[in-house]
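#struct-help
A.M.: can someone run this one for me? Single chain, 158 residues.
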Amino acid sequence: MGNDVAKAAYEKVTFLEFAHAAGLAVVADSIENRCPSEPDILCMIEGRGLVAFELVDLIDEGLARTVACAVRGKVEGVWYGKSPLEAIRNKCDRTYETSHPIELVVCVDDMEVELLAPPSSEFVSEATRLLQLSPFQRVWVVKLTDAEKLVWFTCTRA
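D.P.: on it. Structure tokens below:
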């Protein structure tokens, strides 16, 4: 139960940081954490209505724990996270129980990660192709670190 509460709190904070960076007009007090089989967050966006958001971190929980141990000097090694394309690809085949439009938010957080700016044409092409095969209306890649909070890439279904 404690992990579910902590996860929900983390998702809400992450979503709020993303929404602010993306300039989304989220209706105050409309953000709801949702149970699995639904996307992570459901909220009201001004002018759009209810929109569901699936959140995914490039650094998974196991890797984050390993990095935390390394920072404390308990582990040596090199760590790799997923690429944004891998994160998008991993979510494309999933199905979600919702009648609302769904958007995917890929988060780079907790660690400083350099993202090529602007994204390469190959990245844009592949992300656009994956979006067409997915249940998502839009894909966002956002950098949410202590140093900066910005939208690195967004792609909307045609």
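A.M.: thanks! The longest helix spans residues 2-22.
D.P.: also worth noting: The two ends are 40 Å apart (CA to CA).
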